[in-house]
Specification:
Elements lengths: L1 E5 L2 E5 L5 H8 L2 H13 L5 E4 L1 E3 L10 H11 L4 E2 L6 E6 H14 L5 E4 L1 E7 H12 L5 E2 L3
Helix pairs in contact: 3-5
């Protein structure tokens, strides 16, 4: 592993053989670069981390579980989990995300990072499937792994 030091920031460069590891490893670099420019040049940088964001124009190629559930409901097919469905996350509607970004740009503090999520939407994949099934089809969610 090799490190690069610039002012008070350090980036560790690491060769990652798996793409997931590489994505996790480099995801902090843009934030560090923004902070470096904020400190060095006094730019009023504000960073936004969005949770899973959905809206009316989600492409058919979107493979996220919530959009897959929506497509299954429209098609009248079962909601089938390919895991135990224990992973949990937040969701946010696109217009809410845009409103949050504008609020952060106009009222946020330079150099700060803001998480944008709707806390009312935090649930597991299984819970999300149950909500979709109960709301739209009155069916339970079944798992292919159990």
């Amino acid at each position: 592993m090799m490190s690069i030091r610039c002012e008070s920031l350090t980036w560790d460069l690491l060769t990652c053989s798996r793409s997931e590891a590489a994505i996790r490893r480099v995801s902090g670099w843009p934030k560090n670069l923004c902070l470096a420019y904020c400190r060095e040049y006094g730019l009023p940088v504000r960073m936004v981390r969005l949770c899973q964001t959905f809206g009316p124009d989600v492409p058919q190629t979107d493979c996220r579980v919530t959009t897959t559930f929506a497509r299954n409901i429209v098609a009248g097919t079962d909601l089938v989990l390919k895991s135990r469905g224990e992973a949990a996350s937040d969701h946010c509607y696109t217009l809410d995300a845009v409103a949050a970004i504008l609020l952060i740009l106009t009222r946020g503090t330079a150099g700060e990072t803001y998480n944008v999520a709707s806390p009312d939407t935090y649930c597991t994949i299984r819970g999300d499937g149950r909500i979709h099934g109960a709301t739209f089809r009155k069916k339970a969610v079944r798992s292919s792994s159990t």
